[in-house]
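Q: Got a minute? One more chain.
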Amino acid sequence: MPKTFTCSSTETDGIHNYSEISIDPILLSNYSNEESLAAFLTNQSCSEEFNKLKSELLEEVMSIIHNNLTEKQKEVVIMMYLEGKTQQAISNELGKHQTAVHKIIQGNIDYKTPEQKRYGGALKKIKRLCESNKKIKQILLQMRMYVANNSSANINKKEQI
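A: Always. Here it is, folded:
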């Protein structure tokens, strides 16, 4: 099962907002009552408008992945986050050591330099590009507004009952 992939957008006031592209149903099953997070997310995920926004967000993130990562980074990110493979499974499939796969995803620190500079790291690159992408910021804002509007509508419905 695919892992969740988080995309963030930084607001002008410095507050980070996060949105998950996919949600693992096993995690949601831990919320058992009717008023739970699972019920809320299930209601949101049934909405055609919200699903359209999630698809647009995924499309934009995939564009960033395909246009900005090296071939090795693309391959490993897709295997890990879209196919749900572990670092060990990827290393076995690609014939690389697991630490090499980890470095592709997380980057590496060069301890030989005085500043101990971090290099590589597909996730760091994706995060940086997502944070500066205007289309992603707009989609995340629309998603937040949609959720806020529907949350207040649900609260008003319950108050009327």
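A: The first strand starts at residue 6 and ends at 10.
Q: Perfect, thanks.
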